[in-house]
Amino acid sequence: MVAGPLGLDVEHVHGPEVVPYRDDELIVVCLVRDGRPWIEAFIEHYFSLGARHIVFLDNGSSDATVPVAAGYDNVTILRSTLPFQRNELLFRRYLISRFGQGRWSLCVDVDEFFDYPYSDVIGVDSLLGYLNSNRYTAVAAQMLEMFPEGPLAARTEESARTFRERHNLYDLSALKRIDLEKHSGRNNVLGSAEIDCLAGGIRETVFGVRPRLTKFPLVFWDGVVRPVEESPHHIDNARIADFSCVLFHYKYVGPCQEQTGRAVGEKNHWNDSAQYKQYLEVLNRYPRLSLQRDTSQKIDDVNELLEEQFLAVSEDYISWVDAEESRALPRTVEHGSSEALPRARRLDRAKTLRIQRLEKRLRDSARQLEEFERTQRRLRRRVRNLKERVGDVQADPEANKESG
Q1: Distance between CA 160 and CA 313 in Å, rounded?
Q2: 92 and 34 belong to one structural domain
Q3: DSSP assigned state of 105
Q4: pLDDT tens-place string over residues 393-402
Q5: What ranges in 3-160 are assigned the alpha helix state H?
Q6: Residue 365 CB coordination number (10 Å)
Q7: Which residues, in sequence order, are CB contacts of 172 under 8 Å at separation 6+?
Q8: Number of domain units in the chain
Q9: 290 phi, psi to nearest 5 deg
């Protein structure tokens, strides 16, 4: 065991202990335990996205997570058996501070698959270039619950690599939107007012819990920013970027009822696994439970989440994407007859931005109207109470004098 920078006892298991990489390269860090159902798809997703290296901190897996991960190049595996509940945030900060000092790191769970707007146009190096050029130190990402058609119960023939083909539905009908500035943490500077903090969703509809869905997984550790201060959903002293990303969340892969039952028994999650108790109660009551609703949609690509107002982008970000696309086009395409396609894409992106801003204004107006109506109701109640008191005084002035 080696004492880490935050005083944690961590054992090196596999791969390089030091990972050199540039400020336009990405390292992925992941706290994992019994991640076998996801591990292959997770690693292949992040390498296909353009990650330079992946670091796992294993917290006592009893399945094949470690040997499977060790079979890939550019993977480092660490281990600590300290209790998860008391050390989760320390584990995450350890990974970020050790491997992301002065660089970008993406801290995610093994069931979270990160993606970003227009990743079909710009690579990770360009994404980080944009962040660096604007001196941002954190990026907001919205968790999107992914689930299959039909029952959640895993099919025995489901491949560890192909579960994403089955878990291809999402549902935005029950999202709650709150002010990001008030709920992100302390001393943060927001690059855009267009990004909301999201909560609830399909988990609230089905299980009666209201999870916070906004995280800040992509962080530039500059010694000032303080990631995962109170939870993975909070950050302090950050310059938060002017666009949001997505964490496709595959929570229901594999034997989810068995995994939930173990989380309840071990009480190793927040508040003695209170939310997991609610999950388990519903799963036990409905063995053939399905999350599919009339409002569910199939995912095609990350950009549709902009049209659905789940993600947000800024004019500056779109300008960066447009410029990168033009730079990548061969001269014969850019100045020839084939210029129509990239021009159409630029117009489509500009249209998406206009719609996004209009929808944001409508939501803000609706919130203001709701707040105004709440204020009106409070005032009416106060007036009623005052009238009742005045009526009591007029009905019995002597009693009022005595009580005074």
Answers
A1: 33
A2: yes
A3: E
A4: 666 666 555 5
A5: 39-49, 65-70, 84-99, 124-133
A6: 10
A7: 201, 295, 297, 308, 310
A8: 3
A9: -125, 140
CA 38 to CA 43: how far, in whole Å?
Answer: 9
184: buried, middle or exposed (CB in 10 Å: 19+, 13-18, 0-12)?
Answer: buried
Tokens for 125, please give them.
């190096």
> Are residues 192 and 298 part of one domain?
yes
Q: What is the pLDDT of residue 381?
A: 81
Q: How far is CA 378 from CA 99, 375, 383, in A?
A: 52, 5, 9
Pairing status of strand 138-145 against strand 214-220: antiparallel
Q: Is the pLDDT of residue 152 over 70?
A: yes
pLDDT in tens, 220-245: 999 999 999 889 999 999 999 999 99
- CA 38/CA 54 separation, integer angstroms: 14
One domain for residues 264 and 153? yes
| Phi/psi at 396 (5° precision) | -145, 75
pTM of the model: 0.85
What residue numbers bound the domain in which 384 lies? 345-403
Q: Is residue 334 part of a domain?
A: no
Beta bridge partners of 56: 30, 77
Q: Is 250 part of a structural domain of the chain?
A: yes
pLDDT in tens, 199-221: 999 999 999 999 999 999 999 99
CB-based contacts of 320: which residues, under 8 Å, 6+ apart? 122, 126, 130
Positions of E strands within 110-185: 112-115, 138-145, 169-170, 175-178
